[in-house]
Amino acid sequence: MAIGAMILACGQPAVNTVANSTVNTAASSYEDSPTGAYMKLYAAVKSKDAEGIKAVMTKKSLQFAEMAAGQQHKTADEILQNGFTASTFSPTLPQIRDQRINGNMGAVEVYDAKDSRWDDLPFIREDGQWKLAIGEMFAGTFQSPAEPESQKEREASNAASNTKVPMNTNVNMNAIKPIIPKPAANMLNGNVSRPSPNK
Fold it and tell me: What does the DSSP 8-state code read for residue 198?
């Protein structure tokens, strides 16, 4: 309910695109999901609620924030202020799609309007809740539950625009000998002959 109020307060309609279908963002079916976790993160970032941001981060993500804070001479709260994702800079809740879950690993794609691209965000079910798993992603322990929709779109686009000429496999490559230019005989020892100006 608080998420729905936050969304309305930000000027975003209470309906958003999720997983390629239109749903009511206040619906309880999405509260306990990677989509719901992202919506909580977005609301916490917009209200500058540091504890709310931390509540949707995995333990490894919080450790990652502490490490990054030490390296950058900042506080962990400063590192976490955008929730580790550029999509939270959007003035309204960005479009969310392609929720994928496999066991305790999940992911959603969130549209980053500034860069005009879909960000595939990792989530892990930890302590009974879905949480953003940036720490696991950097540690290499997160495994995407499935290929993201944006990857499939890129592959389809590349396949549709593939203009490569197929290689002729019937050519005898042993018969082709590259032409390697030989240095001029007078260049071998550094002697360069110049034409005589009197001719």
Answer: T
pLDDT, tens digit, 9 for 90 and up, residues 118-174? 999 999 999 999 999 999 999 999 999 999 999 999 888 887 776 555 555 554 545
**Residue 104 is encoded by which pair of tokens?**
């305790």
List Cβ neighbours of 116 (8 Å cut-off, separation of 6 or more). none
Q: Is residue 36 within a helix (H) or strand (E), and if so which, with residue range?
A: helix 34-46
The CATH code that applies to domain 2-149 is: 3.10.450
Q: Specify whether the CB–CB gap between 61 and 55 falls below 8 A.
A: no
State both tokens at 197: 């100006």
Q: For residue 159, what are its two tokens?
A: 């396949």
Look up the pTM and report it: 0.67
72 CB-contact burial (10 Å; exposed 0-12 / middle 13-18 / buried 19+): exposed
Distance CA 120, CA 31 (A): 19
Collapsed DSSP state (helix, strand, coil) of residue 170: coil
Burial of 146 per CB tally in 10 Å (0-12, 13-18, 19+): middle
- Contacts of residue 107, defined as CB under 8 A and 6 or more positions apart, other chains included, come to 34, 98, 99, 100, 120, 121, 122, 123, 144, 145, 146, 148
Tokens at 62, concatenated? 């919080």
Q: Where are the domains of the chain?
A: 2-149
